[in-house]
Amino acid sequence: MTDDEFEGHVTDALDSIPASLLDLLENCVIVVEDEPPADEPDLLGVYDGVPLTERDHEYGAVLPDRIVIFKNPTLRMCQTREEVVEEVGITVVHEIAHYFGIDDARLHDLGYA
After folding, report:
1. CA distance linking residue 65 with residue 99, whole number of Å
2. Distance, CA of 16 to CA of 59 (rounded, Å)
3. What is the pLDDT along the chain (113 residues), one digit of tens a residue?
4. What is the dihedral sign for C-alpha 1, 22, 95, 64?
5. Secondary structure element (H or E) that encloses residue 91, with its range
6. Are 66 and 29 a contacting pair, CB within 8 Å?
């Protein structure tokens, strides 16, 4: 799968999220990278920032939060294009949920972990 195709699946996953929810994402960028850190080779995505639930009145003047979706581990675990599309959708929602302060236990209960 080409970089453009994979990035298109990430865009499609974002497009499937209600605009009213995406509009709440402030100062957050979503990027695709090929590989995760070497110590976590199977990581599909990561949220790097301060969740909304942990921000206080002193939060401000910071670099954007980042959501990173990792292409190669996703492709390694999926056998078909349909599996890639499904996994990318789950990963995008999972990482956006972390932005909102939803932890892995709750995501697991919702089927996104």
Report:
1. 8
2. 30
3. 999 999 999 999 999 998 988 888 988 999 999 999 999 999 999 999 989 888 888 888 888 999 999 999 999 999 999 999 999 999 999 999 999 998 888 878 877 66
4. positive
5. helix 81-99
6. yes
> How many other CB atoms are there within 10 angstroms of residue 86's CB atom?
14
Verdict on whether the full-model pTM lies above 0.85: yes
Phi-psi region of 111 (alpha: psi -120 to 50; beta: other; left: phi over 0): left
Check if the beta carbon of residue 43 is closer than 8 Å to that of residue 70: yes
Measure the CA–CA gap between 3 and 58, rounded to whole angstroms: 39
